[in-house]
Structure formats: C-alpha cells, structure tokens
Amino acid sequence: MTYIKRKLRLYWPFSRGVIQSIMSYRVNFFMFVFGNLMRTFVVYYLWKAVFISSGSGTINGFSLNDMIIYIFMSSLTAGTIATGTDSDIGHEVMDGSIAMNLIKPISYKVRMLFMSFGSLLYQFIFILLPVWIGLIAVRYFTVGELPPDAKTIVLYLLSLMFGFFVNFLMNFSFGLLAFYVTNMWGIGHLKDASLLFFSGQLIPIAFFPELLQKIMQFFPFSSLNYIPVMIYLKKLTGMALLQALGIQILWIVLLYLLSLWFWNKATNKLVILGG
Amino acid sequence: MSIKKKEGINLIQVENLTKEFKIYKKQPGLKGAVKGLFSKEADIKKAVDNISFNIGEGEMVGYIGANGAGKSTTIKMMTGILVPTSGKCIVNGIIPYKDRQKNASQIGVVFGQRTQLWWDLPLTETFSILKEIYNVNDIDYKNRMEFFNEVLEINEFIGSPVRTLSLGQRMRADLAAALIHNPKILYLDEPTIGLDVMVKENIRKAIKQINQEFKTTVILTTHDLSDIEELCDRIIIIDKGKSVYDGSIEKIKDTYGYMRTVQTFVKDINAAKQIDISKEFGLAEEDAITWMKDNSLFVSFNKNKISISEIVGHIMSKVQVMDINIKETDIEEIIKKIYGHEVKL
Amino acid sequence: MLKKYTRLYMKFLAQYLKSLMEYKADFLIGLFGFVVVQATGIAFLYLVFQRIPSLNGWSFNEILFIYGFAQLPRGLDHLFTDNLWLLAGRIIVRGDFDRYLLRPINPLFHLLAERFQPDAFGELIVGIALVIASVPKINITFTFSNILVFILVVICGSVIYTSIKLFFASFAFWLKFSQSILFMNYMLADFTKYPITIYSRWIRVILTFIIPFAFTAFFPAGYFVGKVSMSVAVGGTVLAAVISFAVAYTTWILGIRAYESAGA
Q: What global pTM score does this model have?
C-alpha cells in the first residue's frame, strides 16, 4: 500500500500539471472543444434528415432517439478519453528533449500515463458531466426520455475507462512514430480522420458493410467509444456485454505488448543516433 | 568624423513620445487559475514615458538602458511597428506608423534577438527576394553585394540556408540584408548580443565603415557599453521609460570624472565590513560609497570632497591591507549609478 | 505594382517548390491525410444513402456534387492562405509579426506569399473528382457561360473562406492567440457540405448572414443543380465575398494598429 502511495505521490504532479495547463488556457481549450462539437451537430442534423427521409421508425435497429443519444454520447466519450500523448511524445522527439526525460529516475511511460489521467479527469469533469447533464435535461423536457439506470451508467463508465487505456496505448505507439516520420502533423490528420470514421463517431459500426465489420474486428477502433456508447444505449446486454468488455481488455493487453515492443525498438534508435 | 547634429537637418524628431501597455495579471497554481476565471486585473505599464530627442543626418547615436527600460519599444515606434499612445515621431518627414511602407523603404533594421531573414531559404535567395521587395536595380545590387562581401565576408556562407548559420554569420547576414537598399537610417537593436569578441569587432568595423561611406544615420541600442564607446559620439540613456541623459560621451566623463574608485585587498573581511567612509567622515552618501566584494573593500569617492590618502589611511588604521588599486570611474559605472538614481542629472 | 507582386509571388513559390522536393515524403503524407479525410466523409454519405433514396429531396449524386463543389473554394483557400493559421497561433504571440511591418510591401501579401500549402491538393483532387463524377448523373448542362459562372463562384467562395480566416486570425492582434476562435469558426464550414435545408432555422441564418459559409458551397452548387435561383447563387455569393473581405481587411488593419509586438 505504501508502495502505491509513494508512486502516486511521485507521479500525481504530472496529472496536476496537465490539469493546470488546460486550466490556464481554458478559454482556448473550450473553443477547440466547441469547434469539434460543431461536427457532432452536423452529423446530428444529417441523421435527423435521414430518418425523416427514410419514412421508417428504425434503421438497423436504431430509432431516431437512439441515434441522437448515440451521436452525442460517442462524441462526448471520444472527447473525454482523448489524450495528447502522441503529440507530447512527438514534440519531445522532435526537439530532442526526450533524451533528457529518459535519463530521469522516473518511468517515461508511467509519466505519460499520469499526464493522460490529468486530461481524462479534466475532460470528465468539465466536458462529459456538464454536457451529459444538459443532454439528459433536454431529452427529458423535449421527449420525456429518462436517463439510463445506475447499473448501465456504472458499466458505461467501466467500459469508458477501458476505452481510455486503449486510446492511451494507441497514442503512445503512435507518438513513437516521430522517430521515423517528420510530418507528424500530416500523419496526425490521417489518424484523426480514420479514427473519426472507424470508431463510429459519424455512423455506428453496425451500419458498416458486413465485410468491413469483419475487418474491423482485427482493429481496436470499436474499443474506444463504440462499445461504451452501445453499453450506454443498452444495445449490448448479457453475454454480448461481457464479450464486448472482454474484447476491450484483450486490446489493452495486445496494445500494451505492442507499445512495449515499439518502445524498445524506437528508444534503441535514439541510443544509436545519440552514440 | 564630427558630430553633425548642429549643422545637419533633424532627420528624426521625437517629441513627448509615450507608449503604454496593458498587462493582465495571472495568478500561479491551480487556485490562481480558478480565481482567474472570475477576475482579470489590468495594470498599465508605461514602457516609454514622454521622451523627446532629435537626431541629425549621419549621426551615430547610442540608445542605452537596462533590460525593459524601453529601448526596443522606442525603436519599434520609430520603425512603425508600434503605434505610439501619445506624442510625435517624425522620420525624414514621414510618420512611421501612418506611412509604414514608405518609411520601410528608407530604413534598415536589425534585431539581434530575432532574424528578419527567411529561416529555410539559402542566403542568396533571401537577397534576391529582398532585391525585388526594395526595387534595387542590377548595378546597385551587384556593387552592394561586393561591398558586403568586403566588409562582412558573407560569401563564405551565402549558399547556406539561414537556419544553418552560426549566430555570428547570421548577424552579418542580417546586417547586409538590412542595407541592401542603402537605407538612410539604420536601426540596430542589440546587434552584438551573444557574439564573441572577434565577430563583435568585425560588426562594429562594418557599421563604422557604412556610416562613413554612405552617411547612414545609425541608431544603436545595446547594453554592451563597449559598442557605444567605439561607435557613438552621442548617447541617450533611458531608464524606466524616461530619458535620463542625452549628450556626448565626453561630457558625461567630464562631469563625473571627479569620481575615483579605490580597491583595497584586506585580510580580515569581517572587520573590513564594519567600515563606512561616508559615515565616518561625515560626507553625503553619494560622495563616498563603500562596499565589499570577495576579499576587497571598494570605495568610490568624489576626489574634491575627500583625498585618497585620508581614505587609505583610515582603512589601514582599521584593518591590515595587503594591496591597493586605484582607478578612474569608467562610463559603465557612471551609467550604473544613473540607473540606481545615485546621480542626479 | 501588380507586376512586382506577381514576380515576388513567383519567387516565393519557386523557393517553396524547391524545398518541397526535399521533403517529398512529408508532402505525400499530408496529401494522403487530406484525401482520407474526404474519403471518410464520402464513405459516410454512401453508407447513409444505402438506407434512403433521397435526402430532403436531394439525390445521392446531387449531394456528392455539393460535397465536391464545397472542396474547391476550401482547397483553393487552403492552398494559398495557410499562414493565417500560424498568424493566429504563433506569429503574433512570439512577436514575429514585426518583420511584416518592416518591408515596403503590403504586409498581408507578404504574410500569404510566404507559405504555400500543398496538403490542399488532397481537397482539390477529391473535389474535382467528385464534381466530374457526379455531373453526368445529374441534370446539369455546362455551357460556356455556365463555366464562367462556375469559376466566378468558386473564386468568390475562396475569398469568403479567406475573409473568415483573416477576420478571426486578426483577433490575435488583441488576444495574442486566436487559433481556437479561428478553429471554432472554421469548423462551421462542415455544415455547408450538405444541403443547409436540413438544419434548424438559426443555423441557416448564421451560415447565410453572419459567417457566410453557405455561399461557399450550398448556394452556388445548388444553382447548378437547379434548386437555387441565379440571383441568390451568383449575386449573393459575389456580395457575400465583397462584404466579408471588406470586414476582414478592416479588422486586419485595425489589428495592425493595435499590435503590441513582444517583450516591451
């Protein structure tokens, strides 16, 4: 117990530092968040028009109400688990400060994880909670829809935590690409666009053609925001729910191994460059 | 070289020039950030406070002051980058911030801290773009490039991108770039900052030569006083936004030349620390300033008020002195005193 | 004057292309990135249209046409005025704006000429491909005068993009950093890839009269599809371009007067 306490005391300042830096740029931070929310609204109106045009109440098992909750919750979930790990590592590789950080007597990976905890905490309190409460209120007063039960919310939060780890590990490996590529901005753009689509933020993965759905099973994208939101919508229950959580855990393990391997490979390169 | 201030027309007229900045406070820490959500206090800082001077054609003027004294802000108003809060600034008949482009074609600017060149372009390309921007004709261009190579030896790195140049090379390149259109006025803001002695010397030589050959008016800000002593006949000293001295270097030396400093190397430091000449002789504080540094006791004194033998005799009666060193107070120390408001001008 | 500026621009461009050859991989990655962004958008549309025959009275191909058209002004603006993002994000914060004020050329021209963004070809290629692919499948006859109108509205559309960017980037003269405001407003452009009739009233009002992105895609493209009148499409687009540029340029000029440089 004291061991964990000691580690927490050692690494917590990194989380706090991230929270403080977001706080000091909060106005800008929220404008960026709001900009991203704009896209969510576009998708929301598009789906509304689609449901009106289709004439049928449900598409692929989704009612319009499901779809509205789906669109906002997946954008919120993705925004909450987002971390800056890839760009942090990218910058440190580019300006060479990674070498200095590697010789410090703290674990680089744990430091990055705690920095991500900082943004998770901030985004949870200042984005997810208020927008979620707003969403619940609007839904209640417009269509009389009630929020899901406590058990569903707990399961959603558990799945969101798993999604956070999947995202962190993906970003960690992605940031290491900076050892090999100079145009990190271009490649980041590529990553964001792929994630937006394949994690189902525009359209639920259930709407993908069957072949694409099969292919997607070999990628971790659905473990980010899709599974938590499907749990929230109660579209995953019983065995399917356990299976989905299992998939998330499996991806955490696989991505952890991948990031370890990649980390060793990339930092070896640093040693060679430095030597 | 003579001072052309009186004979020439006033090329630059600065009258009651003032620039204010608003500064928003930011409190530190998490608590501070939360507090900052609700309040934003602003302070008004007068970076330049009611400054006036005239500069004649062909003059070389040193504009000096400590960091944050307002040197750069004044230069930025004269070059048209900043709009003054109040007051007047006329450069060769032009109000810089109103007629910025016209003003830009008759001035050259070098900021020591920040290059004006394109980071990724090879120097040759930089010059050929500048040639277009300033409408320099082919013959002038060729002659000037030759001249720059003569005085600044830029040919040795002219094919390299700016980002690969050393600081000294970059400064030479920046100086040449600022002169490509043979400007009437050259503003140099800390042109020798961070350079080694050899490069400094070369840059100064080049500036001198340009001033002599082209009658270029040079305004130089620096905190390196050796720049000033070598280049300028006239200095303007600015402190906390206010002009505190405007005149020749000679005059400042004459006026304050009565100051001497005596350094005594003592054995018993603690005993020496007790000594205060001005108190012990009943003098005004600015007539005899006493301080310790390492194992030396320094006394800076007015030779008209107290003699050196009195001081040394007094010290020797109190502590054991191993060695003595006497020197004239140099310009640097006088200026330090002016900053410290120890000397009234 | 114009000749001098053209020659200068060519000089900057030539330099840029030289450095592009040095960083070919970066260029291809950037280009590919923007193509993928567009491709996911199209894939999304395609999947949606699997379920419905038409959206709010617009066929799949008509929507593809708007979508493709929208990329043209966006891409053109992106190609030439990318430095505005840096103005909003770091040029002013770091005090690097000084040098634009120390040259005897228009500072806005100087700023824009310095950067050329080939990533924009990702948008332009997708846009042109979509327009070419969708035109034969919808009822558009391209006459000579129609083509002239097409070129005119595309150019006006990119002027609107540039003006909106310039307007919000200029806020940095007062705020030091305005990239977030710029980003927030730039994201509004996302709305115009689809027919604006699907949005609520206030969104339509904003996109038409306040931040007039609707004139960069929906109105002009709608004209070619025969759903928007000529006067609104062409007249409105030209008017929107003129007004937004006037507002943006005035803001820029006022911003320069308020510029505080760095390290007072």
A: 0.85
